[in-house]
Write a structure and sequence with these properties.
Length: 338
Amino acid sequence: MKWHSLTAFALFAPSHALIRFPCAQLVVDRLDPLVNPGLIPSPHLHQIVGGNSFNATMDPSKDMPAESTCTTCQFSEDFSNYWTAVLYFKARNGTYKRVPQMPNSGFDGVNGGMTVYYMQDGLYNFQQNSKVTAFKPGFRMYIGDVNARNKEDMQRFRQLTYTCLQDINTRDPQILDFPQQPCPYGIMTALRFPTCWDGKNLDSADHMSHMAYPESGTFETGGPCPASHPVRMGQLFYEVNWDTRKFNNKADWPEDGSQPFVWSFGDVTGYGNHGDYVFGWKDDSLQRAMDSPCYINCPTLKTQNTQAMNKCSMQRVVTEDDIDGWVETLPGGMVAGM
């Protein structure tokens, strides 16, 4: 991919709205208010970023900007919450260790977390001139299938991918399952959400049906939205960098030569990759950004420095899990191969 061209675009030629920003780690906890609202603990472990009003329920009427006192995101008007499952390494002796996250390119010093994008057009369309509608208060969505264990199961979700990082700027090739060989600079997971809204529902029973993919083509190619979901939204896109470098010694990998990484819900294939989103931008700040000439540094949005991002955090609610040491089972009793 044209990553260096994209960086040049950010520095020299911003014309329309494509915002890319880091969000530091808020908490790593066994909570999932979208899929398992009110359940403490949730079945598996997640890593969460964004506003510190995150809780186990996240009622749709919740005023996240008013209830939050800080956010881990660079744009300080963004009190949304973004979360994914957590990556683990399974050693040859059968024990597990959580894989830490690391900052993305251009965001040195940020404490783990992820990189978030909101885009009018595809990532490498430097014009970014399509009109899109920003998400509304109460909006939330989910992408992926925690039970997917083969390519056919997950291909209905476009663009949930892995990249084996040769360096911090690697973006290709993108694959659908876990890399099968050690990655010199870690593993990046990328999650691109659907972009067509039904225009009526802020959520749905499966947290997906109120959104759809373009009827033909893709978001990147400007494919039209289906009649059932006619409202073109900006694309929400996560990148999470997992620092697998300390686990690259193949003497610690399974004796059969298979790859050693497993999601916190027991998936060893990588096909169960999934992500959650609850909108929480203050007032009309996101729409203003999407209507403005923004790229990373957005004059219409308030920003905060890395120190402020890293300072914002929450205490874990579920404290029974050892999430830092070597453990015999994954949090919640999950095991590889589930």
